[in-house]
Amino acid sequence: MKYNLEVCAFTIQSCIIAEETGAARVELCDNPIEGGTTPSYGVIKNVRDKISIQLFPIIRPRARDYFYDDDEWDIVIDDIAMCKDLGCDGISVGVQKSGGEIDTGRMKRIVELAYPMEVTCNRVFDAVPDPFEALEVIIDAGCRRVLTSGLAETAPAGSGLLRQLVEQSAGRISIMPGAGVRSGNIPQLIKDTGAHEYHTSARIKVASSVEFQNPRVTDSGNMYVADRDELRRIMQIFGEA
To answer: Right CATH number for 4-240 from 3.30.200.20, 3.20.20.380, 3.40.50.2300, 3.40.30.10?
Structure first.
């Protein structure tokens, strides 16, 4: 069994670290505090120029839920086209109905528009009322994988459901545990879930290199990059598994 690592990256630096440490794929996002939104054209373009591993930008026009009005849906469509034009390997995306169910029609349309890019159903899956029904919908839509914590706060907490989803998938789609995935719990996750792809940000906060900081300005936010040592530990575990 070969194990693959996807790194959730919020900076171009993290993408480069992901490739250098042996990750198979980058999920490229903006706005870590909001849970990830669509990165800009410039970010996607420059990351694509810098790395050769798989690049999957998230398509998410805003935070909160994944229930989009017609104007937001148009943004989703245009951003899919942008990713295709920039040579991305795939996208991470999700759409839901007002009741929380996966929007079957729109997910199928996304897969059609994205082709030949792959489509990962993102953590919209963790907001569904019935995960077993939702998995069949996502498979039928043509998605390649599902990023999920097993409807729990973290993947380790949802490992029981993750195992059930892996069994239900029967090789038709990849179940990729994410949320709280670290080198310290991956061995147990491999044992408990049977999944072969895992998703982590392994992020650490980086101090500003600007020497002067105005103490009266507190809205500058934080920058996060992938922890190179943590990613190396995960890849070592994969090699030994």
So the answer is: 3.20.20.380
